[in-house]
Design brief:
alpha/beta; globular; about 260 residues; 7 strands
Amino acid sequence: MDLGIDGRRALVTGGSRGIGLAVARRLLVEGATVAVSGRDEGALAAAAAELRRATGGSVVTVAADMADRARIEGMVAEAAAAMGGLEILVNNAARPSGGEPEDLRGIDDDLVVEDFRVKFLGYLRCARAAVPSMEAAGWGRIVNVGGIAARMAGSLSAGARNLAIVHLTRTLAGELGRSGITVNAVHPGLTLTEGVRERLAGWAEAAGVGPEDMAARLAADVAIGRLPVPEDVAAVVAFLASAPASAVTGEVVAVSGGVGGAVHG
């Protein structure tokens, strides 16, 4: 399928590794010019070199901290200036879930505040800064990367921040649709990113099993029989950012491999 984004300009936050890097690669393959952002300039430079080598595409890097409003606005402006415009925004930068208590007695209030400051406010600020460029083009796509924790009880902060992203997505879709801008979200489940692969070894050691056995245990409740990889998520993001997806807005697509048995009408 021709996604119709050849020549479009995209910004992917949290684009130096994991899902963000896979999204940037897929958009480049589809012919888009891509800006990737992150906090670590060294990691961004390495990611850009890898992306150029793998795709031959045009890549821009812009360092930014998603907790800094002024820097977010500067990042979007710099990316748009470097590419000559901005029509696709993929909001992906956030703290990885896991590693800290998120139950009633164990959760730290500061964790919740920081999660909302970086993810919810970060996504909102990126969208607010990017929309004028999209309105000028008469065409835009915003894809917000949430998380399957929004649909599962257990992690207080991860669940709340990702459910808030759903509300943000639906609200912006209604506000921006008549400007030719769609807004959608994806909910990845546990995905075999570099970070998860690094943690997998520790989980396996703690459980007294090998990494492959640990991955199989984690995939036991996944309908497709394996954990998704970043490229699985990137394919869905690329479609939502495409021209053929012009009538899809305000929606949430789970890319979890079919985890759990909950039914969502």
